[in-house]
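Entry type: protein chain
Record version: 2
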Amino acid sequence: MFAWLTPYKLMIEIAFFGALMAGVAFGAHVFLNYERQIGYDKAVAEYKVKEIEAREAAAEKTALMQKQIDEATQNAQAREQTIKTLAAGAVRASGGLHDTIAAISRGVPSATIDALRLSTTTLARVLNDCQNTYRGMAEIADRHASDTRTLTEAWPK
């Protein structure tokens, strides 16, 4: 029936075999692309899971550090209040000492010895100046200690 194709049989077979090989090559190409896409999708999914885990860990660490900072700040505020209370007590005590020194100074004029008057007045002034200076210094030292403790407590552990 197709006797006229007989001389072209070899060429037809070669063309058919070539087409078959091209189809196989195309199928292999499509299959490999499919497999590659599966691997890519799996890698993307693993990356996203690890990224979410890393973000959660970072958020947890940040929250913990913020909690430490908040606690250190609250402790510093409590220490500041204590320092203010102690400073107010020192002022009251200072007032009592000041009154004592003033009483001594008031009693000196009735003394009969001029040297005693002069030395007592001078001593009263010196003690008053010392007391005021030490009170201020103690308050500054307490504030410095409080600042140091705040920084130490807020430092990440």
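Comment: Residues 58 and 64 are 10 Å apart (CA to CA).
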